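Q: I'm a student working through a structural biology exercise. My instructor gave each of us a protein and asked us to get a predicted structure, then write a short paragraph describing it. Mine is NAD-dependent epimerase/dehydratase domain-containing protein. I'm not confident about reading structure output yet, so if you can add a plain explanation after the tokens, that would really help. Here is the sequence I was given:
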Amino acid sequence: MVTGGTGFVGSYLTRRLVDDGYQVTVLDNNTRGKSNRLNSVIQQINYVEGDVTDYDQVNQVTKGIDTVFHLAFINGTDNFYNFPEKVLEVGVKGALNTLDACLENNVENYVLTSSSEVYQQPVNIPTTEDERLIIPDIKNPRFSYSGGKMISELLTLHYPAKSPLKTYICRPHNFYGPDMGVGHVIPQIINRLMVVKNENHGSRFDFPIQGTGEETRAFCYIDDAVDGILQMTKSGEPGELYHIGTQEEVTVRDLVLEIANQMELEINIVEGVLLEGSTKRRCPDITKISALGYTPQYNLKDGLRPTIKWYVDQHLSKPKRKEDSSEILR
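A: Happy to help. First, here is the predicted structure for NAD-dependent epimerase/dehydratase domain-containing protein. I'll explain a few features afterward.
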């Protein structure tokens, strides 16, 4: 079963599981997901429109399941600030309900998708799974997401500890790819470049960014991400945590320039103010997952090509208000 199966990562995972011959149940309420992401496999899966905060529903669909991939969570920076109570409710109740259902129905494996956000400002880079977790300001609703992920990890590790349930936790690092939504840095850059290109009729133009551009991330293409999740589930040690990502650390400036280059645009990057709570540098150490046989196949340039093509083809760009001219860096 895949909770959050109509979301970005969940839909790719679901399609891969179907391609690999598994019978898959998807549970999602489509608050942020899109059921049409599963159109190619909808006749081959058991699709249930439901909510992970409803225990009776979760328990019912978990019957007969041997592995639960729990991805359902409320993402999106705007949601963190505006609806922290819902972010926490879905995070905590979702983990507790899916774990209880697994215990009730004798499920063999439970796989939690956490987040690299649990580190906030990591001390050591590349960052290992042993890095300390932190909430810098408990009064800032922006940290409702990472706080919910921390609680989910604690529940996954300790709540079923005396049961036969095997648990695995992955911490994704900046997954990206076609159809990932619009509220993330890469699609926002692509969409804004399309808008500004049309406004400037192909001439060189200024392009504002959030921060100085020296902030870094290591982006992981979605096909590699799914490979990592499945490799961890197949070969990982129960009760362990694994980073899934790449160690190709890139500055935001170089990311923007690469996207612009692939779109055949000439731009002047204009520095801006970094949003409070943003992490200046993030790059995982993937030694642990690599020891299981995980090897990313896509470098950033290769992964950006199909991603850019998808967004350009979909014509998803919309004019931004002036105050929204900088991308969200997470």
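A: Here are two points you could use in your paragraph. The chain has a mean pLDDT of 93. Residues 50 and 152 are 20 Å apart (CA to CA). It's a good idea to check both against the output above yourself.
Q: Great, thank you!
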